[in-house]
Automatic annotation (TrEMBL):
Pfam families: Cys_Met_Meta_PP. It is an enzyme of class 2 (transferase). Its cofactor is pyridoxal 5'-phosphate. The keyword Transferase applies. This is Cystathionine gamma-synthase. It comes from Microbacterium plantarum. It comes from the Bacteria. GO terms for molecular function: cystathionine gamma-synthase activity. The keyword Nucleus does not apply. Belongs to the trans-sulfuration enzymes family. Keywords: Pyridoxal phosphate, Transferase. Its EC number is 2.5.1.48.
Length: 384
C-alpha cells in the first residue's frame, strides 16, 4: 500500500498524493525527471507510457495526481501557466458560435483571453454578476451559454457565488460550469463537491505559494472532456516543465498550513481596515458586513488571504499602494510574502472601459504569512 492509499485528509493528500518514494534508492522525495525522451523496449514498447517530454513526464504526472487528489477529481492536468490551462479548456469545450457567460468581477487575463483571443475565432462573450443568481438565471433563460465561468471569491472585489446554485442553473441549461478556485484553493473550498464540472487554478498563486514558479491546472471528472483536454495538452504543448512541476508539488505540500496563516492574517487586517476612518469600504468575505459572508462560511472552511479596500479616490488609492513597505507593490498574489496591487493600472488594466472594469479607488492586498503585527503596522503607516 502506498502512502497515497493511506492519505484521506487534505493535508495528508497534499504531502503524499503522487509522491511515492523512489523504488530504486528509497528516496522519500521523488527525483525530478529532466529527460526529454525515454528509451523504448522495442518499437512502441513504452515504459510507464512515457516516450517524449511533451506527451508525458513522471514529475508532471506526480503533480497531476496530486492536483486531482486535492480537488477530489478523477483527472488533473498541469500547464505552463494559468492562462494556458484556461485556453486549453475553452478550446476543448467550445466551437465557433458558442458563448461564455462570465462573471463581471474576474481576473483581467481571463476576460482578455475570451474577448481578444477567442472572440475573433467566433466565441461569444456575455458578462453578468455571478453573485446574483437571479441575474444569472435571467441571462441563461435569455440564451443558454455553453460555459458558465465564475471566480469565487472573485478578483479583486471578493464577491461570493453560490457554487451549488450556479451548478443547478447551468446544468438545467446544459452548460458547463467552471469555477476558478485560485483564491480559495482546495484547502478552503472544493467546487467539484458542490456541483461544478471543472476547477481551474493559476498554480502560480497559492498552490505554488512562493512566487517562484508559473503554472496552471485543470481538474475534472468528465472522461470525454478530459480526453479532449489531454489531447490538446499534448498537441498544443503548453505543458509545465519538470522543474516547474516539482516546485509546484513542493509548494502544495505546505498548502494547508499556509492557508491557515494567510486567512488569520487577512482577517486581522480586514477587521482593522473596516474600523479606519480613511477606508471607505473593505472587501473581505470573513467580515460579517460582507454581503456574501454567510454563503462563504457555508461553502468555505476559512476566508482566505485576499482582501481589497476602497479609499476616498483613485489618487488616494494610488498613494496608499505606493506607500507600503512590507507589502511590496507587485503583480500576482498568493505567495508567502505580502503584496499590494492597484488593479485598475496593473492586473486589470486590460478591462478598463468594459463591464469588468475595477473602480479606481480600489487597492488589492495579498496578505502573506509574516508576523501580523508587522503587517498591521505597515498598513497603518501607509494610511497615514
Amino acid at each position: 500500500m502506498s502512502t497515497h492509499d493511506s492519505a484521506r485528509g487534505l493535508a495528508s493528500l497534499a504531502v503524499h498524493a503522487g509522491q511515492q518514494f523512489d523504488p530504486t534508492t528509497g528516496a522519500v522525495i521523488p527525483p525530478v525527471h529532466f529527460s526529454t525522451t525515454f528509451a523504448q523496449d522495442g518499437i512502441g514498447g513504452l515504459r510507464g507510457g512515457y516516450e517524449y517530454g511533451r506527451s508525458g513526464n513522471p514529475t508532471r504526472t506526480a503533480l497531476q495526481v496530486q492536483l486531482a487528489a486535492l480537488e477530489g477529481g478523477a483527472h488533473g492536468f498541469s500547464f505552463a501557466s494559468g492562462l494556458a490551462a484556461e485556453d486549453v479548456l475553452l478550446r476543448a469545450a467550445l466551437t465557433p458560435g458558442d458563448e461564455v457567460l462570465l462573471g463581471n468581477d474576474v481576473y483581467g487575463g481571463t476576460h482578455r483571453l475570451i474577448a481578444r483571443v477567442l472572440a475573433p475565432w467566433g466565441v461569444k462573450l456575455r458578462v453578468v454578476d455571478m453573485s446574483d443568481l437571479d441575474a444569472v438565471r435571467a441571462a441563461v433563460d435569455e440564451r443558454a451559454p455553453r460555459v458558465l465561468w465564475v471566480e469565487t471569491p472573485s478578483n479583486p472585489l471578493l464577491r461570493i457565488t453560490d457554487i451549488a446554485g450556479l451548478a443547478t442553473i447551468g446544468h438545467e441549461a446544459g452548460s458547463l460550469v467552471v469555477v476558478d478556485n485560485t483564491f480559495a484553493t482546495p484547502a478552503l473550498q472544493r467546487p467539484l463537491e458542490l456541483g461544478a464540472d471543472v476547477v481551474v487554478h493559476s498554480t502560480t498563486k497559492y498552490l505554488g505559494g512562493h512566487s517562484d514558479v508559473v503554472g496552471g491546472a485543470l481538474v475534472l471528472d468528465d472522461d470525454a472532456l478530459a480526453e479532449k483536454i489531454g489531447f490538446l495538452q499534448y498537441a498544443a504543448g503548453a505543458v509545465s516543465g519538470p522543474m516547474d512541476a516539482w516546485l509546484t508539488t513542493r509548494g502544495i505540500k505546505t498548502l494547508d498550513v499556509r492557508m491557515q496563516r494567510h486567512s488569520e492574517n487577512a482577517g486581522a487586517i480586514a477587521a482593522f481596515l473596516e474600523g479606519h476612518e480613511r477606508v471607505a469600504r473593505v472587501f473581505y468575505p470573513g467580515l460579517a458586513s460582507h454581503p456574501g459572508h454567510e454563503l462563504a462560511a457555508s461553502q468555505m472552511t476559512r476566508f482566505g488571504g485576499m482582501l481589497s479596500l476602497a479609499l476616498e479616490s483613485g489618487e488616494a488609492a494610488r498613494r496608499f499602494a505606493e506607500s507600503t513597505r512590507l507589502f511590496q507593490l507587485a503583480e500576482s498574489l498568493g505567495g508567502v510574502e505580502s503584496l499590494v496591487n492597484y488593479p485598475d493600472a496593473m492586473t486589470h488594466a486590460s478591462v478598463r472601459g468594459t463591464e469588468a472594469a475595477v473602480p479606481v479607488e480600489v487597492v488589492r492586498l495579498s496578505v502573506g504569512i509574516e508576523s501580523v503585527d508587522d503587517l498591521l503596522a505597515d498598513v497603518e503607516q501607509a494610511l497615514r
